[in-house]
């Protein structure tokens, strides 16, 4: 049988960190029923971007991340990182991940964990990555004695050992307190200034709003919104107008065509306005309203509208 030599590896010059084209991935649930977790997803991430990857439970986020990391393969479509197969990019140390759980040996100390895994990456600076992840003071603590947030910081240190070009973060700050979360993102931002590309999935909308250059929302395995946080907020019309107002006046205002809905929180009424300027004039000239505030729609509101509008109950077993 004729043996063909493999082509020589070529230098990769793709301007993109990651490309997913028409990607489909199906699974079979416990009942033997097939379902589609990722349904023709298209996504392109440019080098140096910080991308928030958002979606409700069952939207296909975890499956997409698994395919990017080479942990599973698409049934159809194409996935590449830096112009090569995900497995090749991972082996080359170009890609690293901080996942929600697993990957740590409970009886090892923090330092022993980092040094053991650092031995797989010649030249890795163990002390530096521990300092960057904020775990130097934990070096002698056993993993099973660390809190959930401390274990996440340990996973972050391990991910930095290969000095990756692309960092994938799946709920990276789960279990961290506010101060630890701020320190974590300060470190990530420092890395992105040096050219690292970051993609993170999170349920903390304020993280996506504050730290992402770009927000990608997925629902039922497809991209439903893609842009800056401000552009996605602007995609849903109207603003929220709140005021201290008498119940009678509030009832009349809520019945106006200028208002989609009204909610009460404590002493304040919140009006979801179709035209905030016109509603503001109405409140000032025709009601007893005081302490009036006008606020743009939040990213969380945009998320609810863009991913749940017309949404049916997710199929059982969808990841």
Characterise this structure.
With 319 residues, this protein is of the alpha/beta class. It has 2 domains: 16-232, Rossmann fold (3-Layer(aba) Sandwich); 237-296, Alpha-Beta Plaits. It has 11 helices and 13 strands. The protein has helices at residues 61-68, 86-91, 110-118, 126-133, 148-160, 178-193, 205-211, 229-235, 247-254, 276-286, 299-308; strands at 16-28, 34-46, 50-54, 76-81, 95-98, 166-170, 197-201, 214-219, 222-227, 239-244, 259-265, 268-273, 290-296. It has a 6-stranded mixed beta sheet with strand order 5-6-7-3-8-9, with helices on both faces. Strand 8 and strand 9 form a beta hairpin. Helix 4 crosses helix 5 and helix 8 (229-235) packs across helix 11. The longest helix is centred in the middle third of the chain and has 16 residues, at 178-193. Mean pLDDT is 88; it is low at 1-12 and 309-319.
Give a short synopsis of this structure:
The chain contains eleven helices and 13 strands. It has 319 residues and is α/β, with parallel strands linked by helices.
Give the secondary structure arrangement, pairings included.
Elements: E1 16-28, E2 34-46, E3 50-54, H1 61-68, E4 76-81, H2 86-91, E5 95-98, H3 110-118, H4 126-133, H5 148-160, E6 166-170, H6 178-193, E7 197-201, H7 205-211, E8 214-219, E9 222-227, H8 229-235, E10 239-244, H9 247-254, E11 259-265, E12 268-273, H10 276-286, E13 290-296, H11 299-308
Parallel strand pairs: 3-7, 3-8, 5-6, 6-7
Antiparallel strand pairs: 1-2, 1-4, 8-9, 10-12, 10-13, 11-12
């Amino acid at each position: 049988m004729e043996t063909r030599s493999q082509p020589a590896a070529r230098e990769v010059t793709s301007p993109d960190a990651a490309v997913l084209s028409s990607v489909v991935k199906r699974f079979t649930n416990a009942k033997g029923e097939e379902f589609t977790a990722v349904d023709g997803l298209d996504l392109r991430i440019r080098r140096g971007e910080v991308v928030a990857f958002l979606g409700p439970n069952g939207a296909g986020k975890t499956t997409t991340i698994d395919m990017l990391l080479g942990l599973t393969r698409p049934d159809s479509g194409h996935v590449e990182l830096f112009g090569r197969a995900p497995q090749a990019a991972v082996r080359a140390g170009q890609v690293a991940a901080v996942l929600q759980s697993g990957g740590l040996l409970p009886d090892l100390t923090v330092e022993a964990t980092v040094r053991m895994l650092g031995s797989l990456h010649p030249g890795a600076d163990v002390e530096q990555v521990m300092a960057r992840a904020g775990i130097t003071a934990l070096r002698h603590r056993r993993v099973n004695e660390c809190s959930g947030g401390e274990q996440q910081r340990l996973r972050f240190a391990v991910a930095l050992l290969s000095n990756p070009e692309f960092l994938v973060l799946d709920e990276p700050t789960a279990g961290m307190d506010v101060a630890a979360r701020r320190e974590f993102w300060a470190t990530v931002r420092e890395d992105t200034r040096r050219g690292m590309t970051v993609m993170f999935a999170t349920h903390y909308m304020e993280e996506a709003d504050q730290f992402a250059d770009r927000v990608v929302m997925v629902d039922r395995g497809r991209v439903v919104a893609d842009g800056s946080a401000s552009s996605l907020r602007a995609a849903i019309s109207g603003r929220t107008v709140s005021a201290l107002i008498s119940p009678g006046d509030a009832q009349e205002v809520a019945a106006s065509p200028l208002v989609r809905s009204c909610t009460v929180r404590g002493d304040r009424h919140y009006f979801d306005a179709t035209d905030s300027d016109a509603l503001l004039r109405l409140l000032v000239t025709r009601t007893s309203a005081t302490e009036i505030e006008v606020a743009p729609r939040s990213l969380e509101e945009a998320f609810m509208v863009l991913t749940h509008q017309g949404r049916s109950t997710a199929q059982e077993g969808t990841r």
